[in-house]
Amino acid sequence: MISAPDTAWMLVSTAMVLLMTPALAFFYGGLVRSKNALSTMMMSFIAMSVAGVLWPLIGYSLAFGEGNAFIGDFSMVLARGVGLEEKGTIPHLLFFAFQGTFAIITAALVSGAVVGRMRFSAYLAFISTWSVLVYAPVTHWVWGGGWVDEALGALDFAGGAVVHVNAGAAAMMAAYVLGPRRDFGRQALIPHNVPFVLLGAGLLWFGWFGFNGGSALAADGIAVLAFVNTMLAPAATLLVWTALDLTYTRKVTAVGLATGIVVGLVSITPAAGFVSPTSALLIGALAAAPSYFALKWRARTRLDDSLDVFAAHGLGGVVGALLTGVFADASLGGTNGLLYGNPGQLLAQVLSVLAVFAYSAASTVVILKAIALVIPLRVSDRQERQGLDIVNHGEEAYSTGEGALLLLDDEVPGVFEVGAIDPDHDAPSRISA
Amino acid sequence: MRLIKAVIRPDRLNDVLKALYRIEVKGMTVSRAHGHGGEVETVETYRGTSVKMELTEKVMLDIGVSEPYVQSTIEAIVGAARTGEVGDGKIFVIPLEKVVRIRTGEVDSAAVTPVD
Prior knowledge:
The complex is a heterodimer of chains A (433) and B (116).
Chain A: H1 4-31, H2 37-64, E1 86-87, E2 90-91, H3 92-110, H4 120-143, H5 147-152, H6 160-178, H7 194-213, H8 221-249, H9 254-268, H10 277-298, H11 309-327, H12 343-374, H13 381-386, H14 388-393
Chain B: E1 2-8, H1 13-22, E2 29-35, E3 42-46, E4 49-53, E5 56-65, H2 67-81, E6 89-95, H3 109-112
Antiparallel strand pairs in B: 1-5, 1-6, 2-5, 3-4
Helix pairs in contact in B: 1-2
């Protein structure tokens, strides 16, 4: 029977999770240089359109259709049969929308690895293909009655593996396939707007209450548990992160603090509804060090996972998923973990993480290589120096308006003029000659 | 006539302006500038990447003055901008060939004399 309170909570949760994508845009946008600010934010925002349209078209059916152990079916293509009938205690349509917001943010998360160099059209092709061929099946494995849930019995409350390990693996491989930005490791590429990063982190935390709390799919005790754990885990992560920052740089950095919040949120995601609040504090605390050192180490390699999607989301997701297998407590509603005498759960968690990681990483490489046969993945060197805001979008984030002359209609260069869409030509919106 | 270019610390700007107004020097152009002098570079850290900030924020004043004002202008700036630490800035005094006040077409000394 449909419950009005559950429906009300899930409506709110769905909106909160959707807000996380603009929040991510601010988090990512602040971390890049000003010439790439809009392009980076657009990569997150556009996921609301691309992944948001593909979800009803086919994604939902592949994720939650009956199908087999590995993928759903085409029974709910175009959201056929998704109506106001009950799914648990909420309308099916609401469940569909809530899950859709997860598909959107997962696609947006990957963009952090490709900023500053990826052609926008190639990026669109990539996240569309990825959200259908990778996100939907992985969701089916874990939440749609697939093998990770049914055969393996791995726990993933709100998407530690589905969302974060999945996006982290894709990000790592995307950064590898694309190659580093031209000036990576040669110039200091520092965040252009740290207040944006903090704003994004704060909004992400708020949205995450819907992400984790909503994953109970009801306004019940489990939702409260997940909600409170979402409040506590990042607090513990921040404490450890701050101590590490003080030890290694003698200062507590704002970018570090924002990163710590995200790592803490990621780590509690798979465990939120399965562990006690004390365990949540421990999970949050334990998640800080791996990501902290991975960030420091990654900056010294040639892997330009520019905004550290793997170090923050991938690794945070792995740590969270594994610790779920340690701290899960059957008395709270799930299964027992290692600490409560069930070491098998930890093994299940390890296997689920490995499977998601391997599938996502391999598919990402194949998808990107296939797209590269049709369109170049990167903009030209010269355009990269100009910045993607002007090159990909014909706009600047921070224009003074000085020296901007109004073009009359017959002076505007047409899309079909020679050079206007030539990938190696300068952006047509900049009149240089 | 001389063009006095002064590079000073941003946090001394208000005091310098007050000192200049006190001696009736009221016409100037102020711009934000970056520079490098003898000061120690600051180190900033972003997610494990340490960067050395080679350039320090400064403010540059461009003041065109007639001969009788040169010495007092320099003294006013030095007096207000000095902290005694490395990085207080520099004053450059350059001969000025011609000045035109755009509004009236007045030239040279007449153009840098304050309007009553």
